[in-house]
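Dear H.,

Thanks for agreeing to be a second pair of eyes. The structure we're designing against is below in token form, covering all 191 positions.
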């Protein structure tokens, strides 16, 4: 397990996210929408057993200047393999920001190579190419965070509904919300 580098007050700007990780049993912090969405992937991937956001700060010299970067995430898989991740946008309108991101990636790759660690870059095209899946992952997180243990009845009902057709989790959630509402009304009239 790694220890996260705390988010500074200056980093808590547009795109700052906090959440609770059922997998880690602690609060998690992200400084961009992309990092938050990558967390959804890590949190809901059964092959990932552990992760740490903001696990390391690396420094190196580029053109005589010290460049610092914080890796986006460290990930450990069930097969014990590990890698570091940089979550970044594919394009930015600001050429200075583009150069900064490129320099960060270069020093992170160099650091990972020196430390014999795998390194992956992830961008919005990889994360958002299936909007239904992203939406489902967000809904899954809300279900898991709000219930300590799944209920057998939920498993049965969801399996029954899912095998009867192709539905988004939002549609499944709405289906069960209606059923629960109807049951609540029935209880009032019966009792």
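And this is the sequence the design step returned. I haven't edited it by hand at all.
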């Amino acid at each position: 397990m790694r220890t996260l580098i705390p988010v500074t007050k200056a980093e808590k700007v547009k795109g700052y996210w906090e959440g609770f990780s059922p997998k880690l049993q602690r609060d998690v912090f992200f400084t961009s929408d992309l990092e938050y969405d990558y967390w959804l992937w890590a949190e809901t991937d059964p092959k990932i057993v552990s992760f740490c956001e903001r696990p390391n700060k690396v420094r190196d010299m580029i053109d005589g200047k010290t460049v610092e970067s914080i890796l986006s995430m460290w990930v450990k898989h069930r097969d014990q393999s590990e890698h570091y991740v940089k979550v970044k946008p594919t394009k930015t309108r600001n050429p200075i920001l583009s150069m900064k991101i490129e320099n960060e990636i270069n020093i992170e790759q160099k650091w990972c190579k020196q430390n014999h660690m795998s390194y992956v870059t992830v961008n919005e095209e990889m994360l958002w190419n299936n909007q239904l899946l992203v939406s489902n992952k967000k809904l899954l997180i809300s279900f898991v965070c709000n219930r300590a243990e799944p209920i057998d009845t939920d498993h049965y009902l969801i399996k029954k509904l899912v095998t009867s057709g192709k539905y988004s989790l939002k549609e499944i959630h709405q289906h069960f919300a209606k059923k629960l509402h109807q049951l609540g009304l029935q209880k009032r009239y019966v009792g």
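Two observations from my side: The chain has a mean pLDDT of 81. Residues 169-190 form the longest helix (22 residues).

Warmly,
E.
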